[in-house]
């Protein structure tokens, strides 16, 4: 839910920032225009020169580098989400126990929930922190492209970076990779339930990116694709699932051996430690 409101806030802020279309240059003043936007513009132009003049590849490399820099924060977020999923059964029990809607009961529910989260090392704000950290980057990249003539009119594949994707391919890819990330995190924890956010986020990403410049849609698609790759490399849910299944099988086999030992002891009249 926090992430949903974060995305909504991003749409509002981006819409407001889109009003500024004055070209950026060495004479631009102020911290935002003269320092942030101008230097980001120069960095992306420099990257494009290294990549054979491809502005689209420059945006992709810039995005991938950003995700690598954010890797510790992303990893911490993922661990927090996993811990949250692990305590979901206990949270459901608390909600049932304190189901009354009166103020005293709800206060007790909040107190017990906070206590459970603290004991499990769960920080509910971590779910949206990476998005909050990236929000200034989204806005800066958007303004950099639309206010840098070379980038605004630059082409990449079928795209004009300063205009929206006419075929909606990038918005669909951004939404698909967002869904893939959510599904990967859920797959790593069989106890996790697929909730509405899993489907709401990709839809919101699509509606955000199909209206803005292709460069921002490219950022979202690359960002989520990079995160999916990072997850598969460093926190592979398929490996985790396999190890969890192996652990469950070992526990079952241990229980079967214990029961066989008990049955055998009963037949021979000996005692067995349980």
From TrEMBL:
Which one of the record's GO molecular function terms can you name? membrane insertase activity
Q: Where in the cell is it found?
A: Cell membrane; Membrane
> What are the TM regions of this chain, as residue ranges?
43-73, 124-146, 166-187, 199-221
Q: Which UniProt keywords apply?
A: Cell membrane, Chaperone, Membrane, Protein transport, Transmembrane, Transmembrane helix, Transport
The membrane topology term of the UniProt record is:
Multi-pass membrane protein
Any one cellular-component term (Gene Ontology): plasma membrane
Q: Where is the composition biased (Basic residues)?
A: 255-274
Ranges where the record places region Disordered: 246-274
Q: Where is the Membrane insertase YidC/Oxa/ALB C-terminal domain?
A: 55-235
Set out the biological process GO terms recorded for this chain's protein.
Answer: protein insertion into membrane; protein transport
Q: Which InterPro entries match?
A: YidC/ALB3/OXA1/COX18, YidC/Oxa/ALB_C, YidC_ALB_C
Domain of life, per lineage: Bacteria
What coarse category fits the chief subcellular location reported for this protein?
membrane
Protein family membership? Belongs to the OXA1/ALB3/YidC family.
NCBIfam families recorded for this chain?
Answer: yidC_oxa1_cterm
**What protein name applies here?**
Membrane protein insertase YidC
Organism field: Candidatus Atopostipes pullistercoris
